[in-house]
Amino acid sequence: MADLVNYFIGQSEKERFMKAWQYEGGQKPIALNEVPEPVPGPGEVIIDVRAAGLCHSDLMYMTSGDGTMPFLPMTQGHENAGIVSALGEGVEGWKAGDVVGVCSSGVRPPLGMFTPGGFAGKLVADAPDLARVPEGLDLSLAALATDAGMTSYHAMAKAGGVSAGMKVGVIGFGGLGQIGARVAVLAGAEVHIAETKRDIWPIAREAGVTGCVADAGEWAAADFNPMAGGSFDLIVDYAGFDTTQKALMAVRRGGKVVQVGLGQPTFTVATPLILGRTLEGSLGGTVGDIEDVFGLMLRGEVTPVYTEIGFDEIGAGLEKLRNNEVTGRLVARFGDR
Concatenated DSSP letters for 106-121? Predict the structure, then answer.
């Protein structure tokens, strides 16, 4: 009997494995591999992932990550929600069974590029990076809030300082832009979008958007004067595809352009457009931003468009993103289904 007990103890101490979608380098498509399950260190928790959002940043990492990722292969996925299943030494305020979203707050390097992310059954996170998911909020929305929600909200509300009465432009009505535009509408701003996909325009109008154009260049007056500028108080560029200069032309003197999207690695801006205007980059946000977005989603004030896929579809989902075949956001749901 003692031998049998010792056998099972030995089995439990053996390394456990899980499936994970990983970038292996060489700009190759993401691959499904078997990797060891993580173990929590001091101040860390293990999260059983239940929902993981797919992001254009994942594709960016697959084209530029070889020189920046500390090791390869790297488990991707930086937009995650799930259930706390284990706690490391010294963790306070959390317990097994808590439902959380994960934010890269700066304690741990960003998930999915510098440290393993959530395209896997489990991930390890630092306790200060956890945002508590309120009861009743669907985990797909909770996952969206940790990146698409946090990033878009922070850019519009915090970096942009949106307020009632402002004329606001949103470039790109995708996974981030749809949330940012809605945040501006809720703040009482007059909101316009520039989005190439015309079939999305009705969704934007339902969200309270006033005007839609296919190209942000249409916002600049034909007799544009670089000293006076355009008519917008604030423009948030969630695309970054040769759009920054167009945004600067459309914003008034004294106005602000907030750059979020990195659709191209470099862009050119005419020097006079910088004078008298502010161009500010916005990256990520805070746990507080995520929890603010949780509240907006729970109250039904922000209802982003998204499509759920299975864990095994993550690789194909990223290819759909690459080919611009996705409306809104893709969220992989697994573990609880």
Answer: SSSPPBTTTB--SSBS
